[in-house]
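Note to self: keep these together.
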Amino acid sequence: MPNAFHYASRSTIRRGLILGSLVLTAGLGSCQINNTSASTTDTVTTAQASSAQPGSLETEGYAAVLTANVDDKALVDYATLQQDRQVLDSYNASLASITPEQLASWSDAEQIAYWVNAYNSLTLASIIDQAPLKDSIKDIKGVWKDRKHAVSGTSKTLDEIEHETLRKDFQEPRIHAALVCAAMSCPPLRQEPFTAEQLDAQLDDQVNQWLANPETGLRIDRENNQVYLSKIFKWFGEDWVPGYGVESGFTGGDKQRAVLNFVSNYVSAEDKAYLEAGDYGVSYLNYDWALNKQS
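Structure:
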C-alpha cells in the first residue's frame, strides 16, 4: 500500500499524478470526457478503441486517481476529485471499450478484477455526480438499482454488477471485502486497482484489513462470549457456504458456520480455536452509512 501523502504536498503530488495519467489515457480520444460523468448515462455509450491493447484495459489513470485521492485510512477526498474528475471519467468510459467477447475470453481473475474495479470506480463517480456532495450514498436516489453504467457492450446498474455478475458468475466470496459502497462501515478502499496478477494476494489483504477493524469487521469478546461480525456477513452469508460450509464446529446455522469458518482463516491460532469451539453467541456490528470522506 502506498504511504500517505503529507497534506501540504498532496495537491502538488496529485497534480503530477493526474497530469501523468492524462498522458497515459490520451489514447481514449473517442471516449467522451465532460463535466457529466459518462458512467451514469441511461443508455450504453460508444467507447471505441482505447490505449488498451485488445483483451486488456489500461488502469494507470484509475490508479493515479486512487493514489491521489484515497488516504492511508481509506478515506476519499471527494471534494477535490469532484473538481478534477477527467481521468476518472475517462477510465469509466473505457470500461465500455472491452467487448463481451474479449471479456469472456479472459481468466476468472481478469474478469473479477475488471468488475470490482468497475464497481468501485463507478461508485466514486456516482458520489461526485452530486452537487453538493451527499452525506451518504443512501441519499442518492436509485444509485444501486436505477442508475445505468456503460460496461462491456451493455448497460448495468451497480446492483447488477454485484449481484448478477460477480456473485452469480464467480464463487469468490472475498469480493465482499473488495467492493466499496462509499460508506464508513464498508471494507477499505484500496489505493490501487485490482489486477489479475495480484488478485489473490489483494483479496486476502482486503479481508485482513477489513477483519482487523473491530468497529466494522470482526470483534471477539471472550469476556461476554460474543463474536461481532460485519453485517455484510449476515446479508450475504450464503456466498460462503460453497467453499467454507462445515457440518460441525463453530456455531449457528449453515451460513453462519460457513462465515465463521472463513473468518477463522484470518485470525490468530488462539482465536481460530475459540471460533471452532463454538461456545459463544454471534451479533452483527452496526452499519455506518456515512460517506467515507476525508474531513
